[in-house]
Each structure stands twice: as structure tokens, then as C-alpha cells.
Amino acid sequence: MQRDTLASDFPLSDDAWEAELKRSLASANIPTLLMVLVHLTGDSDWLSERFHCSRIRGLEDNDPGGLSEEAQDEVRAAAFAAIVRARQGEAPALPAPNHAQLVEMLRTSVGEDIPDSYGPMIAAWLGLDADFALEQRDTFPVPEGYRVLVIGAGVAGLCAAIRLQGAGIPYVVIEKNAEVGGTWYENRYPGCGVDTPNHIYSYSFAKHDWSRYFALQGEIQGYFEGVADQFNVRPNIRFNTRVETARYDEEHLCWHVHTVNDDGREQDYVADILISAVGLLNVPKLPAIPGLESFEGPCFHTAHWPQDIDLRGKNVGIIGNGASSMQVVPAIADQVKSLTVFQRSKQWAAPFEKFQKPVPQDVRFLLREVPYYQEWYRQRLAWIFNDRVHATLQIDPAWPHPERSINKINDRHREHFTSYIQAEIGERQDLLPDLLPDYPPFGKRMLMDNGWFRTMARDHVKLVTGGIERVTPNAVVSDDGKAHELDVLVVATGFDAINLLSSFKLYGRGGRSIREAWDEKGAEAFMGVAAPGFPNMFILAGPNTALGHGGSVVALLETQVRYVMGLLQQGMVRAGGRFELEVRKDRHDVYNARVQAAHDRMIWTHKGMSNWYRNAHGKVVAPTPFRNDDYWHMLRKTDMDDYRYRSAVAIPAPASSDKEIA
Hints:
- The chain is an alpha/beta fold and about 650 residues long.
- It has 18 helices and 21 strands.
- The chain has helices spanning about 15-25, 30-40, 70-85, 100-110, 120-125, 155-165, 185, 215-230, 325-330, 360-370, 375-385, 410-425, 430-435, 450-455, 515-520, 555-575, 585-600, 630-635; strands spanning about 150, 170-175, 235-240, 240-250, 255-260, 265-270, 275, 300, 315-320, 340-345, 350, 445-450, 460-465, 470, 475-480, 485, 490, 505, 535-540, 580-585, 645.
- The protein has a five-stranded parallel sheet with strand order 3-2-1-7-19, covered by helices on one side.
- The model is unreliable at about 1-5 (pLDDT under 50).
């Protein structure tokens, strides 16, 4: 995929660069610029009350920070001088603030109280935690012949590959597609993009000059392809190859992985460690609607959008109104003759002020050229889109209106989002009963409005509520018996996020499958990463790790990968060779009881709620109930006492039929 041309491809003279800086500072985010000043000057006066920024409203950047014009000008002038000195070679006066200082910096920047526990996490994302460093070959005593197999080269798999490579651990990645990127490679439907700011939907170790605040699929996919090239991991990826089965060998303490490529060629791999990086959004979910396969026109899931389809002048139907539908519908509305949306349940969606908006060139210059600027811009976004809302998702048992909300703040959220929907549909207030959810906000994943509500009010767009009785060769018959004739039928029903690891067969100790292990209670794992009975196997984006309250899955995956790397490092040091690690069942069970107890107090288990976070038994299996910093600290600890460990130095590994990774 072709890379965007960057301004940095054409270096400026010093005078021109300084002129560009001065001009760009007029567009700077003042709260972020203050953090740059603290690092470069070491002057704590920039954290004094005079420069305390106002609280952020909603999801805005709050560029002025609530400071007076005089104070803003002072910040810009001081920043210009400090940044120029840094460019001329002056070292930052405070390159590594302590944890308390980092918390105070973020508090000043966002105008809100920040938990002290955020300090170590901020340090890690600023590159101040050695355990998150990419290059660690000297600290990993890798045994001879040791090898790791990673399944998937999406966001999680790439991260694992880069960290393994930095530790000097031989590895191979098995990828079913022809390219890296995972869900971003597969999903190419109109309007496909992130609903998390891409400045935090990116690796902390691979900054990017983004053209939009919320990038579309092409730019995101290009980013991950560029990362694969930058870190030279492609030689270790086997593209167009699927994992069919993975079996644990109890005699030799290793995994046997059977694969088949697109040409039908089979190959077996042997690995000491198995890492699943297949993710949640991996297996498209198709509804069990009678006659769906009989539709004679184009009929496809959004994950399999035909790139050559022409919707102009067509009567198009779309089943579902979740995240993908909310992106598709506004994107194709201008092309089609008519658009019929079949909605089973209503969705809350938040205002999306920066949707499709480009990042101004001045702002791109600051993010690209100014030290610490992008790092702190990311930190502010991480707070706004992460844990800020977590406390409001706790059920207040004394709240008198549980039918509409779960607490006082959640009720205010309902009022705000209701007013927003009313404003968006304008004169079509007759649509409100069919669009306004009858459950509390955030009871399902909060979506971002790409113009969905405005589109639903257009004359050629029709909303059909209720169920679908059947599909005929040329129509969808709703449960009221009415046939809606269509030329094209789009299935936008998301992915199977409940049956995790369903894309391959996984057998652990005693030949027991992961399906057998999980079928009774549903998917669960210690820290969402390790399951008892499956030694030396780790899951990225596993059970109860999805960010239902918001945040960056990329940061979450970096944290999980560091946790796995910490276990491998300790295992190698302790064993002096190969080893076996298996999470203790008692620790696993206590952890998962804690997870479900926390969920019992949260909105996703509120009476009457139905969402894709829960399985058929009502157990929440997808999202985490924990704040990001709480989960980060759990994983940062990397406690080997949570695992049963034994050395495998005296146990020879079987010879691998894959000479490339032996």
C-alpha cells in the first residue's frame, strides 16, 4: 500500500523550520504544549495553578486549555524558545519525571483528578520503563533451538513478533491472509475506519504522521504494513496459511501445530511456546435467518465486501445496526436508489465531531517534529477515551430509575445523547421511538455517530424494526409479513466474539480441547491470557479483556505482550533452558470469580440488558470490568507464583519438520 508523502520527506532549512514552528504553535494544543515545556525546561512553574487547564468537555481536545489569551501566548513563546534549543542539541532538563510528577503533569493537562496508580503506566508509555523496551537481547538467555509460534499477523501478532525479535527469540507467525493487518486487511467496506483516535490506535514504539484524527481503513492498514517493514518481521511470517490444529505434547513439553496454505500444502511446526493472536473480530457472525442463502442478488457480510460492486441505482438492504452498519449506511446513502435498514435493537451513539476531519498541517508538524508532543497528546487522549467513564458504569442500587439508567451521571448521559439524537433527525421526530434506546447508555458498546441518525431521516432511507421472518430470492420478509424487495443484501451482524479461539482446533493437556474446557462456563482465562490445562500457551485479546468502557486496544495488547515476555524471561532465567509454565487453576478461578463479581456491579449485567458481551448463559465473556491502570498493574507484576513451573532442560524437544525456525 502506498505511503502518504510526508513533509519530513523534504527537510527544511533551520530558518524555514523555525518559521514553520512559530506558525504551527498558533494551532497547538496548549495543555500538551505545557507538558513539552516541563520536559524541556524542567521548570515546575508550568504546573502551577496559573497554568492548570480546565476540565475537558465530552471528547474534545480543549486546545486553549481554558487559559487566558495572555497565558496561552506565554506558553507558546516559551515553547518556541525551548523547542528551538532542543533542535540545536540542548538536552531536556527533565527527560524522566518520577511517577508522582507524571501524575501531576496529566492532572494539570486534563483538569481532572488522576489516580496515583497512573504514574507507572504513563512512564511506560513514555518509554521510561525498561521492561517495555524493544531491544532486550541481553536479558533473555534464549535456550538453543528455542522457538515460539504466533497465530495471526494482525495488531496483536505484529506486536508479539516485534517484541520476540527484540529479545532474540526465534519465532514464526502463521497468517491466513496475504498481508498483515488482520481485521483491517479483511474489512474494506465503505466508511470502514477507527472509532478510537488513531493517535492512540497505534503502537507506542511506532509513531505515525496521521492525516486524519480518525483514520479510515486504507490509512490504518498502511500503518501496520509500514510497521511490519520498519521492524523487518516479514521474513518470519508465513502468509496465506491457516492453522488447522494445535496440540500440546506432554512428553516433550511443546506444541505441534498443523497448517495448510492456500495451495493445499500442509506443514507441521513444533514450538516451545504458542501465542494466539487471532483476536476477537476474527470470525464473521451470520444470522440464522431462513432462506438467507436463497437470495439471488449479491449477498455478503461486511467483512467480505466485494471491491467491484456497484451500488448506484440499486435497492439495498442492510441487516444490523451495529458499528459496521453505522459506518456503511452513511457512506453508501448517496449512491443507492433506496436503502432499507433492518434493526433488531436500538443503539446509542455519541457525537463524532472529528469524523472524516483531516489533521491540519500545522498540527501534523507539531506531532511529528516537537519532542514529547505526540507522546503527551496520546496521554491526554488515553485518559479521555479510557478510564474517564469507568466510574459512571457502576450500578447504583439505590438509584430510583433503573429502567432508563443506572446512576445519576448515567442519567445525565441519557439526557445528553437523547437531545443529540433529536437534533440530528430534525423534522423527522416521528423516527424517535424507533431510534431512541430503551436501555441505559453504555449498556451496549457505545458507538460513534458517523451521520447515522441524519441518514435515517432521509427520504429514500427506511428503518424496519423488529425481526426478520425469512429471506426470499429477491426480498427480506419482516416479522409483520411485509416483503421488502431488494437488489443487494448486506449482512452487518458483526463477529463471533463469544466463542473465542474458534478459528482453529486447540488441544491441551490430556487431549482436552479448548471448547470442552470452555463450553460449560464460557471462555475464561487468567488475566485473559492463560488457561489451565494449556501449558506454554498464551492468548492475546483473550476473554474479558475487550475495552467495553473505551480505550485503545493497541495499548492493551502491548501490555499483554510485555506480560508474556516477562514470563518467558523469568522462565528462561530460572530454568537455564526449556521449561513448562501452566497457570494454577486456583489462581485462575479466583481471578475469574473476581472478574464476574466486578461485572455484577456494572452496566453490562443490568437487568434486561442484552449485548454481544455475554454468552447464552448470561456470563460476561468479552469486556474487562477493570480500569486500564488496574489491569496494567496486574500484568506489570508478572508473578511466577501464579504458575506451575518445571524445568524441561533434561527433556529433549522433538525435531521440527520446519527447518526455517529450528
